[in-house]
Predict the 3D structure of the following.
Amino acid sequence: MALFVRTLVIAFGFLLSCMAAAFVIAFGLVAPEFSDVARGSPEYFMVLLFLGGAAGVVTPFYVFAPSFLAILIAEIFSLRSVLYYALCGALIGALAYFLSDIDARMQGAGTVVPLTRELQFLTAGGIIAGFVYWLIAGRSAGKWKQI
């Protein structure tokens, strides 16, 4: 029973962390493009809410496999450090950037991929996602084995 409840907590934490990352990424990448809409207005808030929600629905499909691996390692070794989850989130966010269509960004960039704004926001979103997951499920990783 404890393992079943833990699985539900992990799934809930994963989905909420994906939503948090999506909102960070939507706010960071889309907000500067809406300079014609007044900041703080209801329209501005609704657009960010819609784009963050839409991205939050898609995000788990891109990051499920590496997140599953990081969560599995944390559960097996009872890793409860916030630093572990933030670092894994940053790596998963950067991995999501590099697994996207990189050819479009590489044209004219030479042999080294430049550090772009998108990479920075995906990495920051991953760190936030790792922190949110730690708040919900990571602080008690591996405790189900002691019961």
Observations:
- Residues 42-77 form the longest helix (36 residues).
- The chain has one domain: 2-145.
- The chain has a mean pLDDT of 85.
- Residues 2-145 form one domain.
